[in-house]
Design a protein that fits this description.
Elements (H helix, E strand, L loop, with lengths): L1 E2 L19 E5 L2 E4 L10 H15 L7 E6 L3 H10 L5 E5 L6 H9 L3 E2 L2 H5 L4 H10 L1 H4 L2 E4 L7 H17 L8 E6 L5 H12 L3 E9 L31 E7 L1 H15 L5 H14 L6 E6 L11
Parallel strand pairs: 1-7, 3-11, 4-5, 4-7, 5-6, 8-9, 8-11, 9-10
Antiparallel strand pairs: 2-3
Helix pairs in contact: 1-2, 1-7, 7-8, 9-10
Cofactor: pyridoxal 5'-phosphate
Keywords: Pyridoxal phosphate
Pfam family, one: PALP
């Protein structure tokens, strides 16, 4: 049996205790939300926790009986493993073989079971793996809950109701700032849309700049192979509200690598590739901000996943 559930009416989940990450002015004019310091190492833990808590509240997940399944490049999987552990709920993940091997190893280390490697070696996609296991749940002795992060609106609610209010509260440290230029990328588009909507609701004027790898055009569903895991993932971001995108900037990998190195030398923080892509746009932009404005970006995850094993 398989269950997929959305968050009802974007209301707060039954358990809302969470770690608050820092918002720091890492360079003049540039505010960074340190989502890399979340448990699990990224912003994805917020959506995972929200989805799991909501599903348990509605009975879609029965602790000790249900197995959560998802296809993921890693970060959402960490969040699921951490969110499910207190509830004695197993997690199975289909992770593409091209993703960071270090991430794959650590997913197993924190308790997730990686499935479908033999199928993917023969050409199956992670989606194919999940679909096969859902169709054969009875044979496998599983009652699955498919979190389906690309269709589950709870991902947006998690950031609109949790991340954005945190940022708004932390922005009190800069009381003169009323305008934000939010530089972000999109996989599902949940964090970008949720945070932007939440900050607008908090009374801030928000301009959004979407960062994409060179050659990709998510608006028109054009994608090319690239090295920036977690963004422009081959499908149009289902939760991205294009009406709020003021501008799109394309970045190439050489500039991303240079931004990662520059940021590490100037601040001491080693960040992941999607973060570095946003920083390659955000850092020069920050120098142009007026007194009442700041550039805002997320440090989505740290860079240790992307170093050679």
């Amino acid at each position: 049996m398989t269950t997929v559930i959305d968050a009802p009416d974007a209301k707060a989940p039954p358990t809302a205790k969470h770690q608050v990450t820092d918002l720091l002015e890492v360079l003049p004019g540039l505010l960074a939300k340190f989502e890399c310091n979340n448990a699990g190492g990224s912003h994805k833990v917020r959506a995972a926790r929200y989805i799991i808590d909501s599903a348990i509240a509605t009975g879609a997940i029965v602790p000790g009986q249900t197995t959560v399944i998802e296809k993921t490049g890693g970060n959402f999987g960490f969040g699921l493993a951490l969110a499910c552990r207190p509830h004695r709920t197993r997690v199975e993940l289909a992770v593409g073989l091209g993703f960071s091997q270090l991430k794959r190893q650590y997913l197993e280390f924190v308790g997730a079971r990686l499935v479908g490697a033999s199928m993917m070696e023969k050409g199956a996609t992670p989606r194919d793996v999940v679909q096969w296991r859902l169709e054969h749940a009875d044979e496998l002795g599983r009652h699955y809950f498919y979190t389906d992060q690309f269709a589950n609106k709870a991902s947006v609610a998690a950031h609109e109701l949790e991340t954005a209010p945190e940022i708004a509260h932390q922005l009190a440290a800069w009381p003169h700032v009323r305008k934000l230029t939010f530089v972000a990328c999109a996989g599902t588009g949940a964090s970008l849309t949720g945070i932007a909507n939440g900050l607008i609701s908090a009374g801030y004027c928000v301009d959004v700049i979407l960062v994409e790898p060179d050659g990709c055009d998510a608006r028109n569903a054009v994608f090319v192979d690239h090295k920036l895991e977690g963004m422009s993932v081959g499908v149009a971001p289902p939760f991205l509200d294009w009406a709020m995108i003021k501008e799109t900037r394309a970045v190439d990998y050489a500039n991303v690598a240079a931004a990662k190195s520059d940021f590490a030398r100037r601040t001491g923080f080693l960040v992941g590739n999607t973060t570095a892509a946003c920083l390659s746009v955000a850092m020069p932009l920050a120098a142009t901000m007026r007194a009442d404005s700041k550039v805002l970006t997320l440090l989505y995850d740290h860079g240790l996943w992307y170093t050679p094993a």
